[in-house]
Amino acid sequence: MQRILLPAGGALLVTGLIASGLSGTAAQAAARVAHDPMARSNAEAVSVASFWLASNGAALRRATQYTWDSKEVRKVVSKGGYSPDGRPGIAAPIGGSRPTGSAQNVNLPKTVGKVFFVDGSGRYRWCTATAIQSNYRNLVATAGHCVYDTDSNAPTLDKWVFVPGYYQGKAPFGIYVGKQAFTHYDFDVYEDYDRDYAFVTVYNGIMFNGVKRVSGREYARFTGPKRSWGGRNYILLSKDAGRLGDNVGGQGVAWNQPTGKPVRTFGYPAAPHPDGDKPYSGVTPKYCYGRPSGKSVGAPWLKINEHVGLKCAVTPGYDGGPWLLNYSNAKRLGYVNGVTSTFADQDGNDRIDLITSPYFDGETASVYNAARNVASGKIVGPHGELYR
After folding, report:
1. Are 272 and 315 a contacting pair, CB within 8 Å?
2. pLDDT tens digits for 154-163?
């Protein structure tokens, strides 16, 4: 995104709150929130979902992980400590799941899945993401570079959807089309990876149940996805899967927390290490556990001055995955206090051994709070018809 002044394609700098009398730190935080529309209408949202789920999820299976250039997997530089910009804060998680297996096993969160999109070169890509708490139970957290197109002038990546629990072309809880993306102004405009996070509101999920041949009259009346070929008319049977948070729950969110607290990170690694070794398939999620470094790390080639680093030997595809504080193995819930942004090779052996995340501070909370209060709504009705 080679932008100089304001976010392109309809992204707006949030100044209305300032105009209405907000001042001081709150006004400064509000001014740093940028937002961009994704699927602007129900018709566009259904078209996006149909694109990914056609032919039994062929496009989903065709997608490959977001790919980092191997030259960007370098050693990062340790710097000073962190300076929170306000008091620590949290938003409690919602939902919860019964544990499976023994206490020694890590129960994977239902909230984690893949986000799929089409990049500026027309390639089908995916990253990791998670459902998080919001007032309308419709919010996803991931890395900013998994939402905003950093390689072209388009504001957001095309045909963006979230599929929690994704496995081999299947969407067990439905497919959730992105409606509106929120990020920090500095990432939206300047590609500042110190702000490489995004929160996306999603429509209610869609599930497709097959195809039905109908008469010409039924075909003309039907407002959902449909197709006519060979002189025959067909409608795609779909149903409303409900709100994301009602189906899989939502992780909490934390900011301005002390570094060094243990976290569990989750994601779908798939790319090879710089040396060509490819230990992961990207089919199932993996996890790491540890204490992030108490010192900030920097990567000048990505404008990074203050990231958090964690020892973890995963590869791209893990991008956007949550860093969870206080993860409950029984409830499968914790508090998102970071998202995987970059990958590093600290010992110079051409193998990734460190992942980094932006530090979640009060400005992160400002972006999150702007997104958590935005509704999205249904796409399809009880008979598979498109809501106008």
Report:
1. yes
2. 779 999 999 9
Question: Is the pLDDT confidence value at 23 over 50?
Answer: no
Strand order from edge to edge, sheet including 286-290 = 89-91, 252-255, 333-339, 322-328, 263-267, 286-290
* Paired tokens of 137: 């139970």
For the cut 60, the answer to whether the pLDDT of residue 99 exceeds it is no
Buried residues in 34-64 as b, exposed as e (16+ CB within 10 A): bbbbbbeebbbbbebbbbbbeeebebbeebe
CA distances from 210 to 48, 278, 319, 378, 383 (A): 17, 36, 33, 20, 13
Instruction: Report DSSP letters for 65-86, one per residue.
Output: E----GGG----EE------SS
Cα–Cα distance measured from residue 344 to residue 124, given in angstroms and rounded to the nearest whole number: 25
Q: What are phi and psi of 304, to 5 degrees?
A: -95, 125
Domain boundaries, the chain: 12-206+243-372
Is domain 12-206+243-372 given the CATH code 1.10.1470.10 in the classification?
no
Q: How far apart are CA 52 and CA 35, in angstroms?
A: 24
Question: 136 falls in which pLDDT band (50, 70, 90)?
Answer: very high
Of 330, 253, 252, nearest to 96 (Cα)? 330
| pTM, 2 dp | 0.87
Residue pair 223/173 in contact by the 8 Å Cβ criterion: no
Q: 217-244 pLDDT, tens per residue? A: 989 888 777 788 889 998 888 889 999 9
